[in-house]
């Protein structure tokens, strides 16, 4: 591989930021961008609503509700690194896209509110990171507000998420008595000053622990005693820092700071960039594909329709996994069995789209999709022909029966709902023994029901009625050639199938899943529909 390409790939860092809404993900991202010079300060201190919308919103529904449904990608340079941040929707009604975005990242940054600890959405997203074994970095935010006990916060992460923690720095107080952080590696204290708010160059002092008098005069006697008691305890109890464990996703380095006042953000960024990985190798049906050794290849992780209302377009987002992409070259779309040139390759940055000529492993590109791509598809150089391991189908958690109001519009209804399902925004199922007259829609976040209704009305001119169903748990049946009629169920279980005919079971209660397994010896149920998307229509 040519040295320039190798260098470009090695300096790329592609990560997703995950958090429960309001923990401070947007604020932290904005501060990162500030260091990279990608946005100017004026842009970031505008009302949050404007700043946010400028970053990722595209659909009317988002504007109406003032929330962000889709994920966007931001690229910026910092200290000779080229950083790609994959933003994930910040609302609790997030969708499968959020999960899929994690498939495109090489590591994840988890933002936790210091007064709340691990919250529901973090837990869900974390599960997906765990499944991939990617490195996870924790930023405990909002130390300028009263925080939970630091040991309790760490305990919470370890217990709730089942990952070891290793604090890189340690907070001194919180809220009004927040004095700064102790840097464990350098044994010094970095003092907190609110003057850093909103500025890039804020002033923070570093005081060595060799100078106890100065330290005491700045942080106070009491905070001094407490800090050293805690550090003693920590040195005895916390996991040792082990980079290989971090890179396997078994140990999370923990940082404390305050994104709003820009304290601890650059410290985090610098350490994070040192500890995280360059683009990772990925599994395919011809073995592991090395990002540097191999020529261009990518996979589609997200498809978004109608980003631009005037053009009714569809954009397929691809994560480049190896080599260099050159817009002048032809590529093979493996699942479509075609050699083609990607149409209007672009970098989707904020609400701007920049046509690009080249990109490297680690980068995300969006290409115009005339309806040929599906999620999970592989793109590679024409002389090659391999498939990346598929993206799992994530279990929907909300279900509704869908009916069209005007039965004359049957065709548009089916076409619309199938297209939206193909993009991966919703999953559609049928009753086991009926045709398309009864459609059951499953979604990961309930907002997707509104998106479905809105899009069917606006794009396909079809009005629908949604009747919520009480099911919350879905399981794919993994046994081959099973006679579904013979499965002994429970009163709250429903047998359904997906569009490819795969049988599934829906349950209202989680304990029913256990009971059905007990009642049917040999039955294998799974929570993720592995590879189903890639084995779909194009396979
Ligand atoms: P999210 O993307 O994770 O949903 O969170 P976001 O950054 O939007 O932050 C949620 C709220 O928390 C915002 O306040 C934000 O200003 C505040 N915040 C973020 N980081 C910190 C921090 O380090 N300290 C403190 N004290 N607050 C923080 P808001 O009132 O909802 O919005 P705004 O009017 O302040 O913009």
Topology summary:
Layout: H1 3-10, E1 12-19, H2 25-36, H3 41-45, H4 48-56, H5 60-65, E2 73-78, E3 81-87, H6 96-103, E4 107-113, H7 120-132, E5 136-141, H8 150-161, E6 164-167, E7 169-172, E8 180-183, E9 188-191, E10 206-208, H9 212-219, H10 221-237, H11 243-247, E11 251-256, H12 265-275, E12 282-284, E13 287-289, E14 297-305, E15 314-322, E16 324-326, E17 331-333, E18 338-340, E19 343-349, E20 352-355, E21 358-360, E22 364-368, E23 378-380, E24 398-404, H13 410-423, E25 427-431, E26 439-443, H14 447-460, E27 464-469, E28 473-477, E29 493-498, E30 503-507, H15 510-519, E31 525-526
Parallel strand pairs: 1-3, 1-4, 4-5, 5-11, 6-11
Antiparallel strand pairs: 2-3, 7-8, 8-9, 9-10, 12-13, 14-15, 14-23, 15-22, 16-21, 17-18, 17-23, 19-20, 19-22, 24-26, 24-27, 25-26, 25-29, 28-30, 28-31, 29-30
Count of helix runs: 15
- Stated plainly, the CATH topology of the largest domain is called Rossmann fold
Helical/strand content category: alpha+beta
Helix content bin: 25-40%
The N- to C-terminal Cα distance equals 31 Å
Average pLDDT, rounded to a whole number, is 83
Query: Outline, from the CA principal axes?
Result: globular
Q: How large is the radius of gyration?
A: 25 Å
Give the CATH H-level superfamily of the largest domain: P-loop containing nucleotide triphosphate hydrolases
Name of the CATH first level of the largest domain: Alpha Beta
Annotated CATH architecture of the largest domain: 3-Layer(aba) Sandwich
Poorly predicted spans: 39-71, 532-539
Strand content: 25-35%
Total individual domains? 3
Widest sheet: strand order? Answer: 18-17-23-14-15-22-19-20
Bound heterogens, unique: guanosine-5',3'-tetraphosphate
Biggest sheet details: 8 strands, antiparallel
How many strands in all? 31
């Amino acid at each position: 591989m040519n040295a320039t390409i190798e260098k470009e790939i090695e300096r790329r860092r592609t990560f997703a930021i995950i958090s429960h809404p309001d923990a401070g993900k947007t604020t932290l991202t904005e501060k990162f961008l500030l260091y990279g010079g990608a946005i100017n300060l004026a842009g970031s201190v505008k009302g949050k609503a404007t700043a946010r919308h400028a970053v990722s919103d595209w659909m009317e529904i988002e504007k109406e509700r003032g929330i962000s449904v889709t994920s966007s990608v931001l690229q910026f340079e910092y200290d000779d690194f080229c950083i790609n941040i994959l933003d994930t929707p910040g609302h609790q009604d997030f969708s499968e896209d959020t999960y899929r975005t994690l498939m495109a990242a090489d590591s994840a940054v988890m933002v936790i509110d210091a007064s709340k600890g691990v919250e529901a959405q973090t837990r869900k997203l974390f599960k997906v990171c765990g499944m991939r074994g990617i490195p996870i970095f924790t930023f405990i935010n909002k130390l300028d507000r009263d925080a939970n006990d630091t040991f309790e916060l760490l305990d919470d992460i370890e217990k709730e998420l089942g990952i070891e923690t290793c604090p890189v720095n340690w907070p001194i107080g919180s809220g009004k008595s927040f004095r700064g952080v102790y840097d464990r590696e350098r044994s010094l204290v970095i003092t907190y000053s609110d003057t850093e708010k909103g500025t890039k160059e804020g002033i923070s002092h570093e005081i060595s622990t060799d100078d106890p008098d100065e330290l005491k005069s700045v942080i106070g006697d009491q905070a001094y005693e407490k800090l050293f008691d805690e550090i003693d305890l920590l040195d005895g109890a916390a996991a040792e820092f082990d980079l290989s464990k971090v890179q396997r996703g078994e140990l999370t380095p923990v940082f404390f700071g305050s994104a709003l006042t820009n304290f601890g953000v650059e410290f985090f960024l610098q350490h994070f960039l040192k500890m995280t990985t360059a683009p990772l190798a990925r599994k395919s049906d011809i073995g592991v594909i090395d990002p540097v050794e191999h020529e261009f290849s990518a996979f589609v992780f997200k498809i978004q329709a109608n980003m631009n209302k005037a053009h009714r377009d569809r954009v397929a987002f691809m994560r480049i996994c190896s080599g260099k992409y050159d817009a002048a070259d032809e590529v093979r779309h493996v699942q479509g069995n075609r050699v083609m040139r990607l149409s209007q390759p672009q970098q989707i940055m904020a609400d701007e789209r920049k046509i690009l000529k080249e990109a490297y492993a680690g980068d995300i590109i969006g290409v115009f999709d005339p309806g040929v791509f599906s999620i999970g598809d592989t793109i590679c150089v024409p002389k090659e022909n391999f498939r990346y391991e598929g993206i799992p189908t994530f279990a929907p958690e909300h279900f509704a029966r869908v009916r069209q109001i005007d039965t004359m519009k049957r065709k548009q209804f089916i076409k619309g709902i199938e297209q939206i399902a193909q993009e991966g925004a919703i999953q559609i199922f049928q009753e086991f023994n009926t045709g398309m007259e009864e459609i059951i829609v499953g979604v990961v976040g309930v907002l997707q029901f509104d998106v479905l209704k809105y899009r069917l009305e606006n794009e396909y001119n079809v009005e629908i009625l949604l009747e919520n169903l009480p099911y919350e748990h879905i399981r794919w049946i993994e046994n081959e050639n099973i006679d579904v009629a013979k499965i002994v169920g429970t009163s709250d279980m429903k047998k359904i199938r997906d569009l490819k005919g795969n049988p599934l079971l829906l349950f209202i209660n989680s304990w029913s899943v256990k009971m059905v397994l007990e009642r049917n010896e040999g039955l294998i149920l799974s929570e993720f529909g592995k590879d189903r998307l890639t084995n779909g229509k194009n396979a």
